[in-house]
Each structure stands twice: as structure tokens, then as C-alpha cells.
Amino acid sequence: MTDNAVLQLRAERLARATRPFLARGNRIRRCQRCLLPLRQCLCATLVPAHAQSRFCLVMFDTEPLKPSNTGRLIADVLPDTAAFQWSRTEPPQGLLDLVTSSDYQPMVVFPASYAGQERQVISAPPAGKPPLFIMLDGTWTEARKMFRKSPYLDALPVISVDLSRVSAYRLREAHADGQYCTAEVAIALLDIAGDAFAARTLGDHFSRFRERYLAGKTIHKGSVTADEPQSV
């Protein structure tokens, strides 16, 4: 269960938990790798891809544990994806080392309209070094908190992606039009960066995940929302 950075982070987060992680539908028997119900297991369909771009997921608290999380789909397809638990005051040294590495051009993925006038905002990676796309992976409220309270990312440019289509992601409700899930934004970034094959591969993986997740989703009386976690 530890063959990519998100799965490793999930194992670490579970090891720190003081109580079991429970979500709606927690009685369903799930694959412990893809977190889908066993009948909808996605693992046999995984196809890794190569890309010049690299992704770094900065994940909020229990995000690695959620069956509805799509950031982990990036790590499924691109094995060199990095993943770290977010901390305002004690960021992991591995994250700081990656952000300052001379091998990449790091940039924070975030909507331009929320970035603030003081931040440099770009719409495409600059030429030269391979881009390092730093994605703040959590709910919209959590992502905004991470953006505002991560001083070690403040000097980095912000890349903003304008997806003109309506989001296909309906596992959690968006807070506003124009907000997309982590995997959807990553697909667009790969396209922009010229990693077309990786973009198609991740797009296919996301489509299969969405279809199988919704097929195995437990609909609770009076609620049609996706699995939401309890604290651990």
C-alpha cells in the first residue's frame, strides 16, 4: 500500500490517528489501495505515464484518507508525484527542499481571482526548467487557508487555469462555479505544459474513477452528498 507518495502519506496519517477514520458508507468493504468498494476496484486498470512536469501535493490533514480525494489519482499515473502533509509553522523539510530545488520551476496552483494583487500570476509555465506544480489539496475552504498561511510558498508565482467547461466532478459539491477538483486541474496543467500523453492518461483514469466511485456510492436517506470524514 506504499507504492506512491500519497499512499505513504495515508499510511503515516493512519498511524497517527487516535480513533478510526469513519466516513459515510464506511461499512462498505473497500480496496485499501484505491479506496473504492471492492466490486469497483480500479487498481487493475492503472497505467503509469511519463511527463516533464512534476506535481507536488500539499494535503490538508485527513485529505489522504478520503475515498473522494482525486489528488491521489495524479500519483497513480505519475509515480514521481510528491505529497506532503500541510503545516503552517512546521513544513516538512522534503517540501522545502523540493520548492528550492534548482531542477524545477515551482509555482502554486490557485485561482487568479483569489490570489491577491501582490502575487505574480501566470497562465502557462515559463520556458526552461520543468514545471513543479504545487497543488493545495483539500476542500475549497482548506485550500484557501493553506494559500494564505503558507509563508514558505509566498515568493512563488501562482499559475491559474481557466477551465471553460463545467466540472465533471460531482463527488463533493463545489462552493462556486469555476472551482474544479484536483485531478481536473492537473489534466489541464499537463495539457498546457505539453505533456499531452500524460494528460490523456490521467483523464482516462479520472473518468474511470468517477464512474466507479459513483456506482459504488452509498446514498443516505435525506442526503446525496459524497463521503464526508469524521475527525481522527
From TrEMBL:
What Enzyme Commission number(s) does the record list for this chain? 2.5.1.25
Q: Give the protein name, as stated in the record.
A: tRNA-uridine aminocarboxypropyltransferase
Q: Does the keyword S-adenosyl-L-methionine apply?
A: yes
- What GO molecular-function term can you cite, just one? tRNA-uridine aminocarboxypropyltransferase activity
Reading the lineage from the top rank, the first entry is Bacteria
* UniProt enzyme class: transferase
- The chain positions of domain DTW read 27-218
GO process annotations (BP):
tRNA processing
Report if keyword S-adenosyl-L-methionine is assigned.
yes
According to its UniProt entry, this protein's organism is Pseudenterobacter timonensis
**What are the UniProt keywords, alphabetically?**
S-adenosyl-L-methionine, Transferase, tRNA processing
